[in-house]
């Protein structure tokens, strides 16, 4: 769009000064297609193309006749048809000719939909970039629900748009509104509609469970009917411009806290489109009394996935591995996940419970599962130590290979490196291992010396072991302190004999 004064200047230069389209575009700093559009809107048909003859002119009847039968036929197919009939011009020029003669569909008018208070809400997802969590970059998705009458907005951000988060958004929105609208309108997203053929719709069964729990009617919008959920689409655009633009946040909890404050502040104090004399907050007070009451308990917003356990006792879910008891290998378990926890079920029995990780490529373990695995397979402890070491310090794999080539004891090397890992940390050990390999001294003594040298340079105290040995003979040993005066006597006797 260009300002009205510029449109007036285009028309004046064309009609009064008889400037050409290219001249007008150059002098006013406009694109030539913009100048053509302005002139065409005023009924200047000659402005669409020059009056010079074109090599495509003989093929115009073919274009018009074919497009009358097949309005959506592509220009590339028409170009092939014309080329077979003798057209030798460029394809770009032919596309421009086709665009001029392609029939335009008539503009469709939409009826503005009005609703009663408490009758309807509209729901949709908005994508707001990515969210870094550890090594992962999760999609930052905004769940938006808008009450159609008062325009009250509920906004909540999630690290994805899975079914569990979709359900969680509904539960949180109903709790924030203090009630449930009678009808919810959705786009044809997979979390709501699995299949659709015309008016035949197959809803997602979990959404139907949610609807039965809260007693609302799900209603998917018809395809290409933007007026049926225009309120939530405008709300997402409003969120982008008024809330998210140039906003900084520490983590997801901080972002959602800011979103709650914005929904209850700026967004609630704007004028209500249904009644410009009142704010959204004032209209929501009236609409809230018309909402359906909340049930006694909130719906269990969980995600259920069947997973197959392989040879190792770990279940892969959402890019991470969660440990299970070794007795459940080679079986199929069910993952039941919330925003905070992951449970693994064998039928109705819970076999494992873990805190949910939103990172990627992480191994989440229960020490009891690891102990059971080591007890069942004596060699598992050594393999597990190597696995832990190489995950924390990848360069240690090369050091272990060099130790093996020299005939060194791998078990002792792994144990000593794990001890250094616990004392110094992964970053310091990785630097020391890399330096030892670069110097051609791939053994634990060199790594330990490098760590001690770096510690002395920092002026840090040597690490002290805080854990007692697991052997009860050592752990429970009682040491009786003795008086040190005898050592003074020994020292005095030595001095006397020297004299």
Number of helices: 20
N-to-C CA distance: 109 Å
The CATH first-level class of the largest domain comes to: Alpha Beta
Give a quick account of the main beta sheet: strands, pairing sense, barrel closure. Answer: 5 strands, mixed
Which shape, going by the Cα principal axes? extended
- What average pLDDT do the residues reach? 85
- Quote the CATH topology of the largest domain: Nucleotidyltransferase, domain 5
Q: How much is the radius of gyration in Å?
A: 37 Å
The H-level CATH homologous superfamily of the largest domain, spelled out, is Ribonuclease H-like superfamily/Ribonuclease H
Structural class: alpha+beta
Task: Give an overview in words.
The protein has 499 residues and is α+β, with helices and mostly antiparallel strands. It folds into 4 domains: 4-101, no CATH class; 120-288, Ribonuclease H-like superfamily/Ribonuclease H (Nucleotidyltransferase, domain 5); 303-375, no CATH class; 379-470, no CATH class. Helices cover 44% and strands 18% of the residues. The chain contains 20 helices and 16 strands. Strands 3-2-1-4-7 form a 5-stranded mixed β-sheet, with helices on both faces. It has a 4-stranded antiparallel β-sheet with strand order 10-13-14-15. A 3-stranded mixed β-sheet has the order 11-12-16, with no helix packed on it. α5 crosses α6 (91-101) and α14 (380-392) packs across α16 (410-424). It is extended, with a radius of gyration of 37 Å. The termini are far apart. The mean pLDDT is 85.
């Amino acid at each position: 769009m260009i300002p009205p004064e510029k449109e007036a200047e285009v028309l004046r230069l064309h009609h009064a000064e008889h400037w050409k389209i290219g001249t007008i575009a150059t002098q006013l700093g406009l694109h030539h297609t913009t100048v053509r559009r302005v002139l065409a809107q005023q009924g200047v048909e000659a402005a669409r193309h020059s009056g010079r003859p074109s090599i495509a002119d003989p093929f115009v009847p073919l274009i018009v006749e074919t497009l009358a039968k097949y309005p959506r036929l592509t220009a590339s197919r028409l170009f092939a048809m014309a080329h077979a009939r003798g057209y030798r011009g460029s394809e770009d020029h032919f596309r421009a000719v086709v665009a001029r003669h392609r029939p335009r569909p008539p503009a469709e008018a939409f009826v503005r939909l009005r609703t009663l208070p408490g009758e309807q809400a509209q729901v949709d997802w908005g994508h707001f970039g990515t969210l870094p969590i550890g090594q992962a970059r999760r999609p930052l998705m905004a769940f938006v629900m808008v009450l159609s009458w008062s325009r009250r907005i509920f906004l909540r951000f999630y690290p994805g748009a899975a079914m569990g988060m979709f359900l969680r958004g509904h539960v949180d929105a109903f709790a924030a509104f203090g009630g449930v609208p009678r009808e919810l309108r959705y786009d044809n997203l997979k979390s709501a509609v699995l299949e659709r053929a015309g008016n035949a719709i197959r809803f997602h069964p979990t959404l139907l469970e949610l609807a039965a729990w809260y007693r609302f009617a799900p209603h998917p919008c018809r395809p290409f009917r933007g007026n049926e959920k225009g309120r939530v689409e405008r709300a997402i655009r409003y969120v982008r411009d008024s809330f998210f633009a140039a906003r900084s946040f520490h983590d997801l909890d901080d972002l959602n806290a800011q979103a709650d404050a914005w929904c209850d502040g700026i967004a609630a104090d704007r004028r209500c489109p249904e009644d410009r004399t009142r704010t959204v907050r004032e209209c929501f007070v009236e609409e809230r009394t018309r909402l359906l009451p909340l049930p006694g308990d909130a719906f269990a917003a969980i995600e259920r996935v069947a997973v197959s356990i392989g040879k190792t006792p770990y279940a892969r879910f959402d890019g991470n591995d969660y440990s299970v008891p070794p007795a459940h290998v080679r079986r199929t378990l069910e993952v039941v996940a919330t925003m905070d926890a992951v449970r693994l079920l064998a039928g109705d029995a819970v076999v494992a419970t873990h805190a949910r990780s939103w990172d990627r490529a992480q191994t989440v373990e229960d020490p009891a599962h690891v102990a059971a695995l080591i007890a069942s397979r004596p060699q598992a402890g050594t393999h597990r130590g190597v696995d832990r070491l190489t995950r924390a310090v990848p360069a240690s794999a090369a050091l272990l290979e060099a130790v093996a080539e020299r005939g060194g004891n791998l078990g002792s090397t792994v144990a000593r490196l794990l001890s250094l890992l616990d004392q110094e940390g992964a970053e310091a050990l990785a630097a020391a291992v890399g330096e030892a390999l670069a110097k051609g001294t791939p053994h634990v003594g060199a790594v330990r010396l490098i760590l001690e040298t770096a510690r002395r340079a920092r002026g840090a105290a040597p690490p002290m072991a805080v854990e007692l040995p697991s052997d009860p003979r050592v752990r429970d040993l009682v040491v009786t302190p003795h008086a040190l005066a005898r050592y003074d006597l020994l020292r005095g006797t030595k001095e006397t004999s020297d004299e």
